[in-house]
Amino acid sequence: MNSSLLTTGVQSKTNLQKIFMDKYSLYVPNEGTFPKGYKVASIATGVKPDDKLDLGIILNTNKSYKSSAAAVFTTNKFKAAPVLVSKKVLEDNSGKDINAIVINSGCANSVTGEVGMKDANEMINQINSKIDQENSTLVMSTGVIGQRLDLDKISKGIDESFEGPHFDDSYESWLNLAKSICTTDTFPKLVTETFTLNSSGKEFTLTGIAKGAGMICPNMATLLGFILTDLPIESNALGKMLKFATDRSFNCISVDGDMSTNDTITMLANGAVEVEEIDENSKDFLQVQKQITRFAQKLAQLVVRDGEGSTKFVTVKVENSLVYEDAKVIAESISNSMLVKTALYGQDANWGRILCAIGYAKLDNLKSLDVDKINVSFITTDNSEPRELKLVSNGVPQLNIDEERASEILALNDLEILVDLGTGKENAKFWTCDLSHEYVTINGDYRS
Amino acid sequence: MNSSLLTTGVQSKTNLQKIFMDKYSLYVPNEGTFPKGYKVASIATGVKPDDKLDLGIILNTNKSYKSSAAAVFTTNKFKAAPVLVSKKVLEDNSGKDINAIVINSGCANSVTGEVGMKDANEMINQINSKIDQENSTLVMSTGVIGQRLDLDKISKGIDESFEGPHFDDSYESWLNLAKSICTTDTFPKLVTETFTLNSSGKEFTLTGIAKGAGMICPNMATLLGFILTDLPIESNALGKMLKFATDRSFNCISVDGDMSTNDTITMLANGAVEVEEIDENSKDFLQVQKQITRFAQKLAQLVVRDGEGSTKFVTVKVENSLVYEDAKVIAESISNSMLVKTALYGQDANWGRILCAIGYAKLDNLKSLDVDKINVSFITTDNSEPRELKLVSNGVPQLNIDEERASEILALNDLEILVDLGTGKENAKFWTCDLSHEYVTINGDYRS
């Protein structure tokens, strides 16, 4: 028992606010270019208290191309109504001609049975009639589960959004949209970037918004994310790109290992940039898939950066595995281990806990892990040298680890754990955060 | 953010010591009857500081029967040297004629390569030569991993144990043995019970000792347990009984979901009670298997009771599943969820997090879970009424949950979560504890 840690581990409210302020200024852009042809609006409907923004709507206004859509949904067996309803819209339309997304926060519309389905359908029907197009809207919800939506407030909010000059494509409107879907998030998650197609030299833009604030599970449900682009991408190709990107981004982050009933990542491609439609055989396919993947990683990393109570952002790299899936499952096992997370919080170079988490990962191919070939290191993310601190070399713990250097690396807000399996050539990455007293405080007292 | 919880959540050192004292008096017996024919010794070798007991030895002295042995070992791919060495002894001897177990604490002899194997072998060879019998000793180790055993100290300790009048069958000797294998445990875990065979009316005794202190993983490696009986049980039958019992006890507890490199549960049956040897066809087989299972559950529950930093002991019952394995995997998913654990710590009747953990359990048979049939309740363990507080009924959250009653139940140190799947007839139980600020403090600062 170390009573000084007991004291220092718990930060005063003032200190915490300072950390939150820093995260906002570090991770929220203060300007941006956005994809052509979209307009967004957000409004405070009163579902959330204190006039907070709690409803966002995205509209595609480009009609020269039938906008494609794709989504990746939670695999939790309890799927919230908006997940089931959006899934059906995509299936009915084969992912084509989707022109709106509506998102509400404050209530997840999850475990709400038949009325929940009815409410979710009413939300999309209301938008469909506003844009005068059937079956063209997706819906996402986040917030408390088991409570019925206050549809009166939401419906009034949707009406108001379409009445005044709410829809816009300014930086402020996009930022407000990002704010409107936040729950326990301490900063809105907005990323936007412009790229050039190698084939034609034409520019296109990706804008992504996410929420997650850490726990990736109810009572505050949910990881939500959406990525919008102005490229024309055939809907099957878009589905493949999004699945590929999600597997390497939103499915590679860990805050507490829980998975919610509402998790949804959606992508729209409205074709406002005039190039040939990109399909799976197109020469642009791989370039765009790669860029969407890197972009999704940036967005997903913001969710970890905002991990509830976290003080550290840790990249876990597992390299040279015989099988990719095994590299990923090992990275996941390290990232989810409560003992690794608490050691990181305690700034303890505890390679034993890392090996332990590697050892109980359930491998596809046992040959991916050879206990005599494994190397484990910490890697700095600043410019100091030496960048690598070896902890385990060919399965043997390093004698005389430079504890001073270890302390320097572990004191950083960002660091890397590198595991080299030495059994093949496949690599995987995960992003995780530490487990702090603050996490326990936040989650021990969420509802009240 | 709730700054009052921030303050109250962290207990002062004085309060914590009070909790530990209570656990000792509640869970450590102050007398006991022990199985015939065993003698035990424990000693302070100096591996641990402050003259703490750190080496224990169990000897079978009954020579009228060839003592049977069985063990269940960790499935972690990094297996400590004592695990590999004991496994080989059991294989070489087909689980027969094992007459000694030696256990050291303070050093887990894990991730120690060839020298670790040599050291573990030297420990058993030394005991074998003391009892003048080859290949007759099992070894278990617990403590820091990656450090070499101080074999000089341990060897001197073994010599000393056999020199004076150390070996004994008194209550004090058994209790000291339980103490000698502790690491971060706050109380020694010793259970002993006498039973009557239905067939012959003869009495037999089970004595169990375990350690685990919570985290069930290094840097402090390990869950260790052993059960000794004076029945004669054929070694294959003993292996089946122990596997059956372990699957329903030590494999059904969760403190933090990590699994160590050293986990080992061992059982000896020395036949000092003169009845016909029990094999798989014996009429006593099922009775004894059942009693060993219940006994192992009591012992395993003590590990959860001593869960690091825990304030609550929670039984998770999943009933009426189509498939037993699915009931178990759902119970495990609830028990390991950090969000359920923090909600329990915060005394929050958060059924949403329970449903969420059920929903992401990886089922064998999807039909075990029908979201419209599920019932979730809290159950009191005291005598107050009503005993059951329904949270979810046939998939629908209860409106107007009696929050006052919920608070009463959640304020208890012991409580049950009952999940009725309503899809079949199979039941499973898990035992878990909450996740507190103290857990983070203990594990954020273990090595230093």
Automatic annotation (TrEMBL), chains A, B:
GO terms for molecular function: L-glutamate N-acetyltransferase activity; L-glutamate N-acetyltransferase activity, acting on acetyl-L-ornithine as donor. The keyword Amino-acid biosynthesis applies. The active site is at T222 (nucleophile). InterPro entries: Arg_biosynth_ArgJ, ArgJ-like_dom_sf, ArgJ_beta_C. Keywords: Acyltransferase, Amino-acid biosynthesis, Arginine biosynthesis, Autocatalytic cleavage, Mitochondrion, Multifunctional enzyme, Transferase. Its main location: mitochondrion. It comes from Kazachstania africana (strain ATCC 22294 / BCRC 22015 / CBS 2517 / CECT 1963 / NBRC 1671 / NRRL Y-8276) (Yeast). It comes from the Eukaryota. NCBIfam families: ArgJ (TIGR00120), PRK05388.1 (NF003802). The lineage of its organism: Eukaryota, Fungi, Dikarya, Ascomycota, Saccharomycotina. Pathway: Amino-acid biosynthesis; L-arginine biosynthesis; N(2)-acetyl-L-ornithine from L-glutamate: step 1/4; Amino-acid biosynthesis; L-arginine biosynthesis; L-ornithine and N-acetyl-L-glutamate from L-glutamate and N(2)-acetyl-L-ornithine (cyclic): step 1/1. Pfam families: ArgJ (PF01960). This is Arginine biosynthesis bifunctional protein ArgJ, mitochondrial. The record marks T142, G143 as: Involved in the stabilization of negative charge on the oxyanion by the formation of the oxyanion hole. CDD domains: OAT. The record marks A221, T222 as: Cleavage. GO terms for biological process: L-arginine biosynthetic process; ornithine biosynthetic process. The alpha and beta chains are autoproteolytically processed from a single precursor protein within the mitochondrion.
